[in-house]
Specification:
Strand 6 and strand 7 form a beta hairpin. The protein has a single domain, classed as Spore Coat Polysaccharide Biosynthesis Protein SpsA, Chain A (Alpha-Beta Complex). With 254 residues, the protein is an alpha/beta fold. Strands 1, 2, 3, 4, 5, 6, 7, 8 and 9 form a nine-stranded mixed beta sheet that branches. Helix content is 36%, strand content 20%.
């Protein structure tokens, strides 16, 4: 892979993978990046201090990886923040070690034309046998997140922002909300399957981000137009009231 910068028509793309103890899936992830024929791409790996065979794999690919490190961190998003400090690309894509890059970057790169547009495509979820999740409106982003394995962020996003470590599992959603309400950035959908996302093992698929749930209504009012914020507030408060009734045994869990 050529790590020299390329011109604006062929943006240089930095792919960041963060992991800990990912020996079972890491090599497939690495290979999906190494198999690209697009020259303007670099691969960065931030390891959280693996104790399995992960480091052996990284050493084996050392001459193909632009940068990698292994040290303790404060979680997924701390590692992702670390990764953004080592990029050379105009575009940044986050790819989990359980995931694989499925798009041909030779066809995707020419679509990434405007510096302050956050381009996103789709990710295939094999566990649910579905493609996630098409074009996002403001109302849709208020309800659910874009799969970050399908988002090509401009480097400018991470010059201005970082993932908020208060949100241990959905900091990428909160970041997208901030970017959505920031007039400097815009989102644009590209109809491309960017990655295969392992939806059976992703932490946000099986656990809850309680901090984000606690802040959800405030985030709605901070980042979305008032009709959407009001609509989501009513739904959120209704859900909390229903949960309380179930918890008290007044009604059964539907």
């Amino acid at each position: 892979m050529n790590s020299s910068l390329v011109n604006a028509e062929k943006p240089f793309i930095s792919i960041i993978t963060v992991l800990r103890n990912g020996e079972k899936t890491l090599e497939a992830c690495i290979q999906s990046v190494m198999d690209q024929f697009y020259e303007g791409v670099e691969f960065i790996v931030i390891d959280g201090g693996s104790t399995d065979g992960t480091l052996d794999i990284l050493r084996r690919y050392d001459n193909r990886i632009a940068f990698w490190s292994s040290e303790s961190d404060s979680g997924i998003y701390d590692a992702m923040n670390k990764g953004t400090r080592h990029v050379n690309g105009e575009r940044i894509l986050f790819l989990g070690c359980d995931d694989t890059l499925s798009a041909d970057l030779r066809t995707v790169a020419p679509l990434l034309t405007h510096a302050n547009i956050i381009y996103y495509g789709d990710a295939y979820w094999p566990g649910r046998q579905r493609l996630y999740d098409g074009r996002f409106t403001a109302a849709k982003l208020a309800r659910t997140n874009i799969c970050h394995q399908a988002v090509f962020y401009p480097r400018a996003v991470f010059k201005k922002y970082a993932f908020n470590l208060r949100y241990s599992l959905q900091a990428d959603w909160e970041l997208n909300m901030r970017c959505f309400s920031d007039p400097e950035f815009h989102f644009q959908y590209i109809p491309v399957q960017v990655a295969v996302y392992n939806d059976l093992h992703g932490l946000s698929s099986v656990k809850r981000d309680l901090a984000l749930e606690q802040d959800y209504i405030a985030l709605m009012w901070r980042h979305f137009p008032w009709p959407i914020a009001l609509w989501r507030t009513v739904i959120a408060l209704g859900g909390r009231f229903l949960h309380k009734l179930v918890w008290k045994g007044i009604i059964r869990d539907p």
